[in-house]
Each structure stands twice: as C-alpha cells, then as structure tokens.
Amino acid sequence: MKATIINHPLMSHKVAMLRDKNTNTKQFRELIEEITVLLTYEAFKDIPTVPVEVETPLERTVQQVIPDNSVAIVPILRAGLGMVNGVHTLFPTAKVGHVGMYRDETTCLPQEYYCKLPKDIGGMICIVLDPMLATGGSAIAAVDLLKKQGVSRIKCMHIIAAPEGIENLHRTHPDVQIYCATCDRELNKDKYILPGLGDAGDRLFGTK
Ligand code: PRP
Ligand code: URA
Description:
- The chain is α/β, with parallel strands linked by helices.
- The protein contains 6 helices and 13 strands.
- The chain is globular, with a radius of gyration of 17 Å.
C-alpha cells in the first residue's frame, strides 16, 4: 500500500469545511488541528509499547504504555506548523524539529531555508507534517534531511494529497509510511491540488 487514506465520515465532514473558501482563518486553524488529531490516532496504531506494572484500587496489573521520547514532530514551514498542536494533543511531550521549505514559484521545486532538529532525533519515530502533498517535492526533501541525520523510522502526515505526490514520495522513499485525510483528483498547471483548498499557508496565517 502506497498511502493510508482515512475513510471516515468525521474526516470527510471536516475536510469539506476546510476546503470551503468561506471558512475563515480561525475556523481553518481549528479544523487543521482537529483533523490532525484524527490522523495522528490512525498513524500511530503501530507504535511500539512496553509493559509496566500499574496498581489499580483493586490489584496490580501489567499494562502497555508508550515510552517517553518515542516521537519527534517535524512540521514543514510554514503550513505544517498548523498541525503541531494536533499531534501534541496526543503526544504532549514530543519534541519538535523545524524544516523550512518553500516552493519556487516558477520551477515548483522545494527550496530549503531552515532546519533545526532535536539533538537526539536519530532514535525517534519522526512524523513529518504538511497539510498539502502536491508534487511531493517538499516532503521528499524533508525526509532526505531526516535520513541524513540518521532517522530510520519516518511517517509523513498530510491532509490533502495529489496522486502524483503520493506516487513520487512512495517511489523515492518506499520505507516511509504516508497518511492522508484524502487523496484528490489531480494537480493543475501551477501544481496546485484540485479540488484542494488553495494555498494552505496563506489560509492558515491570513497572508492573502
Ligand atoms: C506548500 C505546502 C507544502 C508544499 C507542497 O508550501 O505547504 O509545503 O507547498 O507542495 P509540493 O508537494 O509540490 O512540494 P509553500 O511552498 O507554498 O510554502 P508555505 O507553507 O510557506 O506557504
Ligand atoms: N501548496 C498548497 O498550499 N496548496 C496546493 O494545492 C499545492 C501546494
């Protein structure tokens, strides 16, 4: 399987509201966060757990928990920032590394302008965040960066993907698990996703 696409009425409802051009910045930000919580729940179905002893009011029992420092959150700036709180809702102590990328307006190729990752990121499961997976160039470049830092367990989480983006990311990094709320029809000539939601960064931060 190239990507996990979430098939759930709550997800399609919230993504429909997100797409709507009349959704304002505050609603857009809240929806991105809520959708990310739902995606995170699905993406970490396979996270390793360890046994611990717990004493209930009635008896001692052995239960499974997720060890501290299992997960690092890596948003791609800018739009990935909108998804950080959603992951923190479920992993409140997760460290955050930032990767800055923008798409060159003529070539649509990603240009890296910032990278600051936690020192001990190599042993963690990294979740790369970006609401939009269009050509896949930005996500591929972010995964390249993480692998250079020794990270071997990487997941990519997107809200809207284009078939081309999933294909390119999977072909370049077949070991990376990809999770998307939805997969749209196609890219237009400017490499925007159709039907999509427009420019995620601008809608999130009110810059247009
Ligand atoms: C958008 C989006 C992704 C990228 C997706 O960012 O948030 O990072 O485009 O396109 P790709 O899959 O073709 O690489 P943009 O470059 O507009 O930067 P911004 O988040 O700062 O607005
Ligand atoms: N980046 C966006 O914000 N939206 C798209 O449709 C494609 C890239």
